[in-house]
Specification:
The chain is an alpha+beta fold. It has a domain of about 110 residues: Ku70, Chain: A, Domain 2 (Beta Barrel). A seven-stranded mixed beta barrel has the order 1-2-6-9-8-7-5. Helix 3 runs parallel beside helix 5. The N and C termini lie far apart (about 65 Å).
C-alpha cells in the first residue's frame, strides 16, 4: 500500500515520525457504461440546465445552495481564506477509555508505521495505550480537510481511525423504537437460547461477498467465450408483516440451530478406579 500521509504524532513533549497507509482495500467490481452498438465508452458532458449547452471548465464556478434554486458563489480566494494552516503533526488532545466511544463515530482505518528514528517512541506510545485501555483522540489535516482521528492498538500496530464529528451523527431520538416490555419472558428466554446455540468465535474469513463471487464467475466465463448457468435466487417470503407467530419461529429456529451446532461436547469416559 502506498503512503497516504507523512508526519508525526505528538503527545506531551514526545514527537514520533510516522507514515499513514491504508488498512482496508476495496474489492468492488467496477463497470463502464458503453454504447451497445460498438462498445465505445460513454462520455459525460457538463450541460447547462437553462439552455442545454455544454459548459467549458473555465466557465464553471462552485455554489452553495442555501435555499431551493438559490446559490451563493464561492471563489478560490474564499476557499483559501477558510483553509487551515497545513500541518504534518497529529496532536493527541486527549486520551479516553475505548468503551466510552460510540462505534458510530469510527469511519476509515489506516495503519500508522514508524518512520526512521521513530521506532522506540512508537513502541512506547503503543504499549502505553494498550496497558491503559485508552484511545488517543486528535486531529489530522489530510487532503486539505481536517479530520477527527482516534489512535488505537491492533496487535503490534498503531491504527489511526478517521472519526465523524459529533454533529454528523443522527440522534436516535429522531426515530421510534419498540420498548422492552413488548417482549414476553418466554420469548426472551428462547431467543437467548437461540443466540447461545449460534454463538461462535469471530472468524472474518467465513463471511464472503457471494454477489461479487458470482459476478466474477460470469465475467471469467465470458472472457473464455463460455456461459455460466447460475440458479436464480428464490423470492423472499415476506409473509404477513402484521401478524407473526414469534414462538413458533423461535422454536423452529432453535430446532434448526441444535441440528447444525458443531460444538456438542463428546461424552467423557468414566475414569478407572485405582486398585
Amino acid at each position: 500500500m502506498a503512503t497516504v500521509w507523512k508526519g508525526s504524532i505528538s503527545f506531551g513533549l514526545v514527537n514520533i515520525p510516522v507514515e499513514l497507509r491504508s488498512a482496508v482495500r476495496t474489492e468492488k467490481i467496477g463497470f463502464r457504461q458503453l454504447h451497445e452498438a460498438d462498445l465505445s465508452p460513454i462520455r459525460y458532458e457538463r450541460v447547462c440546465q437553462a439552455d442545454g449547452d455544454v459548459v467549458p471548465w473555465n466557465e464553471i464556478v462552485k455554489g452553495y445552495e442555501y435555499r431551493k434554486g438559490k446559490f451563493v458563489v464561492l471563489t478560490d480566494e474564499d476557499f483559501k481564506a477558510a483553509a487551515l494552516e497545513t500541518s504534518k503533526t497529529i496532536d493527541i488532545l486527549d486520551f479516553v477509555k475505548a468503551d466510552e466511544i460510540d462505534p458510530r463515530f469510527f469511519e476509515t482505518p489506516y495503519y500508522l508505521l514508524p518512520a526512521k528514528g521513530g521506532e522506540k517512541g512508537y513502541a512506547l506510545l503503543r504499549e502505553a495505550i494498550r496497558q491503559t485501555g485508552s484511545v488517543g483522540i486528535g486531529k489530522i489535516i489530510m487532503r486539505q480537510s481536517q479530520h477527527l482521528a482516534a489512535i488505537k492498538t491492533v496487535d503490534e500496530a498503531l491504527v489511526l481511525e478517521i472519526m465523524r464529528f459529533a454533529d454528523e451523527l443522527v440522534d436516535a431520538g429522531e426515530y421510534t423504537f419498540p420498548k422492552a416490555d413488548a417482549v414476553r419472558p418466554q420469548e426472551l428466554k428462547m431467543a437467548e437460547q437461540l443466540v447461545a446455540n449460534l454463538a461462535e468465535p469471530f472468524d472474518p474469513a467465513k463471511y464472503t461477498d457471494d454477489y461479487r463471487a458470482k459476478l466474477m464467475r460470469i465475467i471469467k466465463a465470458k472472457l473464455k467465450g463460455k456461459k455460466v448457468e447460475l440458479e436464480a435466487p428464490d423470492e423472499a417470503d415476506a409473509g404477513d408483516a402484521q401478524v407473526i407467530d414469534l414462538m413458533s419461529r423461535l422454536q423452529a429456529s432453535l430446532k434448526a440451530g441444535k441440528s447444525r451446532s458443531p460444538r456438542a461436547k463428546k461424552p467423557t469416559r468414566p475414569k478407572k478406579k485405582s486398585a
